[in-house]
């Protein structure tokens, strides 16, 4: 995982290597595989570069293979449709010619119309909560300091995150809520805004599944994302806190489904997200 906001922004600065083909960098760090939020956000940026004047309305992607974190990612964009209001792109992310992620991405021009939303839940204010690094301080010696590593976002949970919950006798309900905001400035760019929401959306979404499965991202066993869907509703206000409300409506057959909603602190619904994760054994 990247440790600063500047590193995240650098990952989203794709290089165009030929028409509709882009190169995505990798962070310089020790990882087992590519972070799914990174590859989805880079794919979205690649699609946006081919549809000027239009912003993302949805992304539906599949993680087909674990990505090698030492190899740059090549994004190939196929234009499927450019209509009066909507554009559709198919994006494939490859490494050494092998597809590791594929997404259908829809972008649209601004349109006026209905405006309503599900209301933000009543939650404690972020200033009343502690940073996740403090919450996980008792586990600082595990995995070479993984739990207390520097993060690009200040994250503050209301509930116990999966590592803390693992030590409790009873599994908590399959719901996880946290506030987060960048530890740094974000440029005011609408396309970048959507890509950052995509990156953020995969940081903790499977928490609610892991709580029920008595797992963490470090084990026991493996936790891997299978697919990812996101609908963009309104711009995120990265100058203030964002609320990420996540829950798991179902777990079966070694898979857990997670649903999430991201709100601005003002209560505006920014995005809706769905993802299913695979809960496997050690290999």
TrEMBL record:
One of its GO terms (biological process) is acyl-CoA metabolic process. InterPro entries: Acyl-CoA_hotdog, Acyl_CoA_thio, HotDog_dom_sf, TesB_ACOT8-like_N, TesB_C. Residues 33-106 form the Acyl-CoA thioesterase-like N-terminal HotDog domain. It holds the Pfam family Acyl_CoA_thio. Keywords: Hydrolase, Lipid metabolism. Homotetramer. This is Acyl-CoA thioesterase 2. It comes from Rhodococcus opacus (strain B4).
């Amino acid at each position: 995982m990247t440790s600063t906001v500047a590193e995240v922004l650098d990952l989203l600065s794709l290089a165009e290597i030929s028409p509709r083909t882009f190169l995505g960098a990798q962070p310089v760090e020790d990882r087992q595989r590519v972070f799914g939020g990174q590859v989805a956000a880079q794919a979205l940026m690649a699609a946006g570069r081919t549809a000027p004047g239009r912003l993302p309305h949805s992304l539906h992607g599949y993680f087909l293979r674990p990505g090698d974190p030492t190899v740059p990612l090549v994004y190939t964009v196929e234009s499927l449709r450019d209509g009066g209001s909507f554009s559709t792109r198919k994006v494939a992310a490859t490494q050494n010619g092998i597809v590791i992620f594929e997404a259908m991405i829809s972008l649209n021009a601004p349109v006026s119309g209905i405006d309503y939303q599900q209301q933000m839940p009543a939650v404690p204010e972020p200033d009343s909560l502690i940073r996740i690094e403090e919450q996980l301080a008792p586990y600082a010696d595990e995995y070479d300091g993984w739990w207390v590593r520097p993060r690009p976002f200040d994250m503050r949970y209301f509930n116990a995150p999966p590592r803390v919950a693992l030590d409790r006798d009873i599994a908590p309900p399959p719901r996880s809520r946290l506030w987060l905001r960048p530890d740094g400035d974000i440029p005011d760019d609408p396309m970048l805004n959507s890509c950052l929401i995509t990156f953020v959306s995969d940081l903790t979404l499977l928490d609610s599944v892991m709580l029920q499965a008595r797992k963490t991202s470090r084990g026991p066993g493996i936790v891997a994302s299978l697919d990812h869907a996101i609908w963009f509703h309104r711009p995120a206000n990265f100058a203030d806190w964002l609320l990420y409300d996540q829950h798991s409506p179902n777990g079966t057959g070694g898979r857990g489904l997670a649903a999430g909603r991201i709100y601005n602190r003002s209560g505006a619904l920014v995005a809706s997200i769905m993802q299913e994760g695979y809960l496997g054994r050690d290999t």
